[in-house]
Amino acid sequence: MSAEKARLRASAKALLAAMSKTERAEASVRAATEAQAAAGWGGASLVLAFLSMSTEIDTSPVIEAALTSGKRVAVPRIGGGEIAFVELPLGWRDWPRDRWDIPAPPEPLAPLPFDDIATVPTLALVPGLAFDRAGGRLGRGKGYYDRFLSGVAAARERLGRAAGDFSAVAYGYRVQLVDLVPTDERDRPLDGLALG
């Protein structure tokens, strides 16, 4: 399984590296439109997005669309081997850049607890290297999003009827769509696709 995943990661990284700036920009706008058409967008009061690495789809168009429509937006901060989401304030574009040249949420911002995320209608836009139509997702191999999605699922189960709607969709380029992503018991399936 790990050899299959390694081959698919290498292939996906090569495809992403070969995309032109123009292709990236056009696809980013298309993906934002796809996200707004996703089943979870209309009712979501919270959108979990991500701030893009250089080869990832640009999330600025979808973040702006969410903020303009009055939705709260939160983005990930990685620390201690885990991912937590912090609410995106005005001025986020001025945050210092991390080693991947991504705007890094400052430490004073408190992460949103799983129960807070699980009680409001939420749409999570999930990055990856490859996706399939059955909800399979190949990440970068650290398991951050799989553990995060498991944490949200556990909070939703604990809250029962008090839980809000939650939908997690793959967010990326159309070239990242493959026939089958190899998965195992640790991989959390996604609910849909928003690809540009």
CATH superfamily heading? NagB/RpiA/CoA transferase-like
Biggest sheet record:
6 strands, mixed
Overall structural class, as computed from helix and strand content, comes to: alpha/beta
Tell me the fraction of residues in β-strands, as a range.
15-25%
Specify the oligomeric state.
Answer: single chain
CATH architecture: 3-Layer(aba) Sandwich
Output the helix-strand order.
HHEHEEHEEEHEE
The spatial strand order of the largest sheet comes to: 3-2-1-4-7-8
The CATH topology corresponds to Rossmann fold
Number of domains: 1
- Distance N to C terminus: 28 Å
Shape: globular
Q: How many DSSP H or I helices?
A: 5
Helix content: 25-40%
Q: Which CATH top level class fits? A: Alpha Beta
Mean pLDDT: 93
Number of strands: 8
Radius of gyration: 16 Å
Provide an overview of this structure.
The structure is a single chain. By secondary structure, the chain is of the alpha/beta class. It has a single domain (2-195), classed as NagB/RpiA/CoA transferase-like (Rossmann fold). It is 33% helix and 19% strand. It has helices at 2-17, 21-37, 60-68, 114-119, 144-159; strands at residues 46-48, 72-79, 82-87, 122-126, 130-131, 137-138, 166-172, 192-195. The protein has a six-stranded mixed sheet. It has a two-stranded antiparallel sheet with strand order 5-6. A hairpin with a 2-residue loop joins strand 2 (72-79) and strand 3. Helix 2 runs parallel beside helix 3. The two termini are 28 Å apart.
